[in-house]
Automatic annotation (TrEMBL), chains A, B:
Reaction(s) catalysed (UniProt annotation): heme b + 2 H(+) = protoporphyrin IX + Fe(2+)
Protein name, as recorded: Deferrochelatase
Record lineage: Bacteria, Bacillati, Actinomycetota, Actinomycetes, Micrococcales
Gene field: efeB
Assigned keywords, A-Z: Heme, Iron, Lyase, Metal-binding, Oxidoreductase, Peroxidase, Signal
Bias-annotated ranges (Basic and acidic residues): 336-345
GO biological process terms held by the UniProt record: iron import into cell
Cofactor stoichiometry and binding remark: Binds 1 heme b (iron(II)-protoporphyrin IX) group non-covalently per subunit.
């Protein structure tokens, strides 16, 4: 990549008052696209933003110009004092797997899906993924999206970074990028990016289920980004800035905010409660269970294709919960529906939260302690060919309807190494799980999460190098 | 208040399996409406929930029954390990002023407005406010809404508390309750609650302004509740449970989630950045400025009426920000629009963030350093008869439109001792503030926040005792 660096005007308060002029001459800009080593610490992608990415940041006004990534942006101070605690927590962007899967689940989510603009080709897609990877490698370390960032681009350019996460990032931010099935082949069978031959055989959509009322406008997409952080401002900043970098190349299709994790992905975390007041995700796969991750989550060589090994599939379902109906249900019935004690999360067959349910246990009258149609019975691995998944969902509350009912529920996210394995469990639940009565799924998506990024690489590189 | 206590059935796993039956006999329930002293610690309202409030919790299924507030609910453990840090932080509900105004602004908001059901009268309204005050006095201390709470009502009743805040409350929760103008007199002049004579002369609505595109369904209401906490689950739990207690009496009209404070209300807090990346609320009134609070925020005896003294007015405006347009604006122009340096928040006339702007300062060419139409110039007290306000707003992001643009902005909240004082500043801004180009107000409300609650009292008691 070569960049014609823009001169940097000197700057003083007032000098820019009222100016809408073109970039002024400057001197001394660093011609190398790489920022200084200090600024790029933690960045696996040393190449900087593409010319296209730079133009997107500039908007339509300064065609033909571009910005070098050199500048004086320093590592953002992570005091957190104007944000959520834990601002200084950071996770590497590079690794064998993408971050944001086994990473201890953060408290906040901004999820977004994008469609590639018509007329763009394979090279455009690669460049977008390179730009996103570069920016993601920076913001996950608490840096601005580029070296010039929010404040160091001079008065005559729109800032590269929108600036609202300054001083509160990275707050444990992870950015996880995925591919929709349409990226390989549209519904009409079009192969826009020369990827049809690489479509994994296991990359299937989910069948329609009972209580599926799917809004297509809130489902699927060519690309997805899951941004998780312990400060919602940092997650929103990530989606906003990555959307901006994609300007003219990919358009935001739908987005969802979530708050409060509804699973634990590490043994170091307590089990949280969902909006039905239940402990949720007790039987989740944890980061500390490598064998289960290999068996259930990571795409292995036997599943393939090779380029996707160490990747996974992300299932996202927006599940509206009939809050007011549930809240009027007797405690005993709530527990029968879930099969667990509401207070401590223990199976109704006895023991503690993490004890295995005994689906054969009966009371004195011979009745099963755990109803056959309870949620725990329907989804438990022992009743589903041993299939498990790594759940990583969030609560959502999107206002209320005109009857005063909250539009709230679970933005369900799970990672599995084949969507049909999720469907086995899901079908078993959807046919007559007692819980289904209180749920209504309003959006449903499957994305392939490619394997992790090597130092200097970009998300999806294995795919494009495969052919 | 007297309660016919419901018998409490004994309970074992499985016994309730499939049961939808009526309450079973029990023995030993405490006939006193007050919970034990330990359970009621921090509660200014010793009376418990009204019969009506209890029925609301029960839903329609068990007419005529009621629940005593005695029980075994203990103070919720505030470990916070499955929620946000700071779970143990609590603020008293009782006091001269309501909490949630000068309280150091928390990180999360759930705001809701309600309309009283048709046909209800003054006593119903009083009872609702008593029930809300009782529940609020408990949940702000990390307790469930009643002593039986989420788990101690037995298997045959819906739980009093929805349970999702268990273990993560109170997280600094404040519950602030307000009155809409319609509570005193409807648009048609109807005096539903015998309060028309008590309508404060200063309780006026805001005039329509430039760039007001007001959705009435998202504005106003008979009552409002502002729930703020450092964990969004705790704020949502508060609104959800107070909505539930109001069932059949008041219906949720509109609601708004907010994340990330956009002001500081204490000198102990850093200035946060808003979604335009600017430091926001630099000139805010702080809790540590009692003289300014008396002058600008608290309703004084000279303003009256007597029952409202120590109350205030809450202005709530949902201000959509044209994020994508702003992000394409040159840094220098962004700073001209706001009149402040984007990085450090200092006025463009020089100095640091907290230095007073010098609106007469000029550069070498004689041009003003701070544009006359900049936001800081338009809203500064020195240009508005010295009027200040206490701002306490939040960011919001409610998905995106079909063009992929974020539906995001500022849920502006300010407290002033007369709405017309807010209007003076607002008019000065709305006429030609450069900032207005990037804003669109989609909802607008004014609520009177009555003074604080005495021990054993309820919100609004001063009003109903006044006549």
């Amino acid at each position: 990549m070569s960049e014609d660096d823009l001169p940097e005007p000197s700057r003083s308060p007032g000098e820019d008052s009222g100016s809408q002029g073109a970039p002024a001459p400057e001197a001394g800009a660093d011609p190398a696209p790489e920022a200084g080593a200090q600024e790029n610490a933690g960045s696996p992608v040393g190449r900087g933003l593409s010319r296209r990415g730079m133009l997107a940041l500039l908007g339509g006004g300064v065609a033909g110009a571009s910005i070098g990534v050199a500048g004086t942006a320093a590592v953002v101070a992570a005091t957190g004092s104007s944000g959520e605690p834990g601002a200084g927590l950071s996770y590497p962007f590079a690794g064998a797997h993408q971050a944001g899967i086994v990473t201890p689940e953060q408290e906040h989510l901004h999820f977004a899906a994008f469609d590639i603009r018509e007329g763009l080709g394979r090279d455009d897609l690669i460049e977008l993924l390179q730009d996103w990877s570069y920016a993601a490698s920076r913001i996950t370390q608490g840096l601005d999206v580029s070296a010039r960032g929010a404040f160091d681009g001079g008065p005559y350019l729109p800032p590269d970074d929108t600036g609202e996460a300054t001083g509160i990032a990275p707050a444990g931010l992870t950015v996880t990028i995925g591919f929709g099935r349409s990226l390989f082949s549209t519904d009409a069978g079009e192969d826009r990016f020369g990827l049809a031959a690489q479509l994994p055989e296991h990359f299937t959509e989910l069948p329609k289920m009972i209580n599926d009322f799917i809004d297509r406008g809130r489902s699927a997409g060519d690309l997805c980004i899951q941004a998780c952080a312990n400060d919602p401002k940092v997650a929103v900043h990530a989606i906003r800035n990555l959307t901006r970098i994609a300007f003219g190349r990919a358009q935001l299709r739908w987005s969802q905010l979530g708050y409060g994790r509804t699973s634990s992905t590490s043994t170091s975390q307590d089990t949280p409660r969902n909006l039905f007041g239940q402990k949720d995700g007790t039987a989740n796969i944890r980061a500390e269970e490598p064998d289960r991750l290999e068996e259930h989550v990571w795409i292995g060589e036997s599943q393939g294709p090779d380029w996707a090994v160490n990747g996974t599939y992300l299932i996202a379902r927006r599940i509206s919960m009939t809050i007011e109906v549930w809240d009027g249900v007797q405690l005993g019935e709530q527990e029968r529906v879930t099969g667990r004690d509401k207070r401590d999360g223990a199976p109704l067959s006895g023991g503690g939260e993490f004890d295995e349910p005994d689906f054969a246990a009966t009371d004195a009258s011979g009745a099963l302690l755990i109803d056959e149609r309870s949620h725990v019975a329907r989804v438990h691995p022992s009743n589903n060919d041993g299939i498990r998944m790594l759940r990583r969902g969030y609560n959502f509350t999107d206002g209320n309807d005109d009857q005063g009912r909250l539009d709230a529920g679970l933005f369900f996210i799970a990672f599995v190494n084949a969507p049909e394995r999720f469907s086995v469990v899901h079908k078993n639940m959807a046919r007559d799980d007692l819980f289904i009565e209180y749920l209504k799924t309003t959006a449903s998506s499957v994305f392939l999460i490619p394997p992790g990024v090597s130092e200097g690489g970009y998300v999806g590189q294995q795919l494009f190098e495969a052919g």
